[in-house]
Amino acid sequence: MKNLFHLFRLIKILFLIRGAFSCGDLLTKTLKTLGPVFIKFGQSLSTRADIVGEEIADKLMELQDKLPSFSFDQVKQIIESEFGGKLSDHFSYFEEKPIAAASIAQVHRAITCDGTKVAVKVRRPKIVKEFAKDIDFLYFIAGLAEKFIPKAKKHSPKEIVAIFDKSSKFELDFCFEAAALSEMRENFSGDESVYIPKPYWDLTSHLVLTMDWVEGIPINDLDAIDKASIDRKKIASNLSILFFNQAYRNGFFHGDLHGGNILVNDKHQIILIDFGITGRLSKKDRIFVANVLKSFLEHDYLNVAKIHYEEGFITNPEDIVYFAQTCRSIGEQIVGLSANKMSVAKLLSRLFKACDDYDMNTRPQLLLLQKTILMVEGIGSRLDPSINMWKLAEPWIEQWAIENLGIEAKLLEFAQKISSKIKEMI
């Protein structure tokens, strides 16, 4: 009965706002109306341009996860229940009004008893039950889609919901986020261009995360960046190198790099916050993506198809030549663009859509990588429309190539191809 109630509610919302917006706007506004779990699901779907299309995926990326705050009495009760004693036993100062409130948690400024300035993230009461209820409804809708919509079945809607369900469980447990902070800090230890907040494990639990308080300017606040005399090009360079090191050097990357989760300071440091969503790439994944991009830059579309065959994505050898032709239709449109317009994210997005047309299953981590690249490219373009972020990261790409592809240095060749291609475009 609960699922039917949700279904009628969904139909009512769609009926009320139909016709006034594009398909992407309609879906975005519907998800906003349905509440936080559906907003989160929409953000998750934004990685699936292969299913919803680029236009809808771009709209879904605009979904903002904001809610009214819950009471300070509840915050106090949660902290005291988690750590014992009184709030004052753990914090000498605790700001009652949160600085931010979203669907899963809200964040307060505080000072520990030893004088350390911290940010304290507290999980919403009853949010786990709310998520479980709404995710059950998503499973219900996915089941209907698989049963009654033939085209939907090949995308495995239930599996998509299952992936979202699993990622939500990680996001709801702040011990996992603290672990992500800790790992990322280790990965960038000694790198002065990056700052990752330190988690305080003695004041962290499944419901509470305490970390360094950080000061900075949101990377999308260009006026504030200019007023602070911060070099935009330097910031763009640091961001591109940071992303490359996360994804390719370490294989562990921040999976939600929108402008609100990236701060900058007058030292030109990139400060990352909110590690609820992260992605991992195995070395095999990294080599796969690098070799595919290398082949696209060389206009070697047959090799792109052969790589997919060798990886088991193409099962029928006769499809190799047809997939190569499809890749040519993608590559010739994008690779030949000017340096400041060439988008690796769009190239990957269209490639994944082509894979879907050939009934290939794209790994979820590669879809998250594509979404993250799209965010990073967008931020870089806003910082300085004339630059190409991949050119800025070229020395780091070359070094990674030397270390990862042995004597043949195939990836070094890939880096050199990027360099020569960009020089041809400029």
Automatic annotation (TrEMBL):
<dbReference type="InterPro" id="IPR000719">
    <property type="entry name" value="Prot_kinase_dom"/>
</dbReference>
<keyword id="KW-0812">Transmembrane</keyword>
<dbReference type="InterPro" id="IPR045308">
    <property type="entry name" value="UbiB_bact"/>
</dbReference>
<dbReference type="Pfam" id="PF03109">
    <property type="entry name" value="ABC1"/>
</dbReference>
<dbReference type="InterPro" id="IPR011009">
    <property type="entry name" value="Kinase-like_dom_sf"/>
</dbReference>
<comment type="similarity">
    <text>Belongs to the protein kinase superfamily. ADCK protein kinase family.</text>
</comment>
<dbReference type="GO" id="GO:0004672">
    <property type="term" value="F:protein kinase activity"/>
</dbReference>
<keyword id="KW-0808">Transferase</keyword>
<dbReference type="InterPro" id="IPR010232">
    <property type="entry name" value="UbiB"/>
</dbReference>
<keyword id="KW-0067">ATP-binding</keyword>
<comment type="pathway">
    <text>Cofactor biosynthesis; ubiquinone biosynthesis [regulation].</text>
</comment>
<keyword id="KW-0547">Nucleotide-binding</keyword>
<keyword id="KW-0418">Kinase</keyword>
<keyword id="KW-0831">Ubiquinone biosynthesis</keyword>
<protein>
    <recommendedName>
        <fullName>Protein kinase domain-containing protein</fullName>
    </recommendedName>
</protein>
<keyword id="KW-0472">Membrane</keyword>
<dbReference type="InterPro" id="IPR050154">
    <property type="entry name" value="UbiB_kinase"/>
</dbReference>
<keyword id="KW-1003">Cell membrane</keyword>
<dbReference type="GO" id="GO:0005524">
    <property type="term" value="F:ATP binding"/>
</dbReference>
<keyword id="KW-1133">Transmembrane helix</keyword>
<dbReference type="InterPro" id="IPR004147">
    <property type="entry name" value="ABC1_dom"/>
</dbReference>
<keyword id="KW-0997">Cell inner membrane</keyword>
<dbReference type="GO" id="GO:0006744">
    <property type="term" value="P:ubiquinone biosynthetic process"/>
</dbReference>
<feature type="domain" description="Protein kinase">
    <location>
        <begin position="93"/>
        <end position="426"/>
    </location>
</feature>
